[in-house]
Amino acid sequence: MNKDLYSVLGVNEKAAPEELKKAYRKLAKKYHPDANPGDTGAEERFKEISEAYDILGNAEKKSQYDLMRKGGGGSFHFDGTGAGGGSPFGSGGLDDILRSMFGGGGFEFGNRGGFGQRAASRPTVVISVPFRTAALGGDVRTDLSVPVTCPVCLGAGGSGEKICSQCGGAGRIQQGQMVLPCPSCGGQGKTYTNICERCAGTGEVTSSESVKITIPPGSDNGTVLRLVTPSHKHVLVKLRIMSDRFLRREGRDIHCTVKITAPQAVLGTKLKIRTIEGKILLNIHPGTQPETILRIPGKGVLYRGTKGDQLVHVDVELPPSVSAEEKALWEKLAESGRRKA
Ligand SMILES: [Zn+2]
Ligand SMILES: [Zn+2]
Description:
This protein is an alpha+beta fold. The chain is built from 9 helices and 17 strands.
């Protein structure tokens, strides 16, 4: 069952809030169970109308729905077979659907069955974020492709408006027992003599928009942010965190590996270590053993009020080959070791 919420209410997708409210009131009155006792068809229809208005009557939910409606290719599936069964609007409306589509926190697309796969096919843009920016938070500038009103037809989709011949302007057609949105006019009730060539009748074209995205500190791979562009388009932005050559992140902690020579391990040394907040001097104590992990407190990622540490894995490298001079020195070491033993 493909239901377009606008055609459920029998309105144009550009209908103003008052118009939506009026359409909803009229239909709700007509199909209200009190006015149609025992009529299950009317009851179903009443439910459908209420669900549609629950979304379209709420500015935020409406803009999310509009975005997904475009991304999903014009049809939205509310049959509940994929997103957990039952009425997907039963508990919390579109927010819940978005959540179930995108997963809880990990955000792997398309793992929730048919519903998710379909509607999630293109609801987000993916942007790359430098490792350090994701850890510390910061701004990323990028160009996004966003739908804007067609400059040629100014959103109308064409010129020479005429009543749709298939549905006679109703926007809906009767097929057996079912009422469906008219396939000719897409539920609009009207078509154009001249379809706009620039936007192919959709009333919208894509345009590149420069946006500044504020990345919260501690952002992870797959984090999805909601963004409103300067032209007021709502976009979901999925983050892809770029890896760092030296630093790796595990939760709040940052890990890195340093290699020291055998003499450095035995005699101790100072090493310049890169952290997300800049370089620091790390003291390697005399007698440091291989596979030692040194903790630099407070140099991890701040997430929900708690800051992690940086963990330095110390690797002791032994020379794979030695010069004649070095060999003599190692032999001396070996000898002194034998004397001690
Ligand atoms: Zn156009
Ligand atoms: Zn029509």
